[in-house]
Amino acid sequence: MTEKDLENTVSGFFKDAEVRVTDLKGTGDHWMVQVITAEFEGKTKIEQHRMIMEPLEERFHSNEIHAMMIKTFTPEKWAKKKDQ
Fold first, then answer.
1. Could you list the residue range(s) of the whole structural domain that residue 73 is in?
2. Per-residue pLDDT tens for 19-74?
3. Beta strands of the chain (E only): which ranges?
4. Distance CA 28, CA 2 (A)
5. In a designed cystine with 34, which of 20, 28, 57, 62 is the match (CB 3.0 to 4.6 A)?
6. pTM for this predicted structure
């Protein structure tokens, strides 16, 4: 799996999201995924992470993805983070 493959896959879960993917080890199975979308409004971090993890469950079971660090933001929280 390439960064672009995973980015396109995760982007497909949301109507309008900014998705950034980084291969943490260069092995194509350890990832950092950052998602910014208004669809996270009113949801807990756990709910936000589930929105990303649940559709990828099969890829974890097949070991195509071994590990994933997830960072989620609403557009408002992302704007605040960028200002810091």
1. 3-83
2. 999 999 999 999 999 999 999 999 999 999 999 999 999 999 999 999 999 999 99
3. 17-23, 30-37, 67-73
4. 6
5. 20
6. 0.91
The first and second tokens of residue 5, run together, are 């493959």
In the chain, how many domains are there?
Answer: 1
Tell me whether residue 6 is exposed, middle or buried, using C-beta atoms within 10 angstroms of its C-beta: 0 to 12, 13 to 18, 19 or more.
buried
* Phi and psi at residue 68, to the nearest 5°: -145, 125
**Contact between residue 17 and residue 36 where contact means Cβ atoms under 8 Å apart:** yes
Tokens of 70: 């997830």
- Residue 62 is classified by DSSP as T
User: For residue 11, what is the domain's CATH number?
Assistant: 3.30.300.90
CA angle (49 as vertex; 46, 60 as ends), nearest 5: 125
Structure-block tokens of residue 44: 């807990």
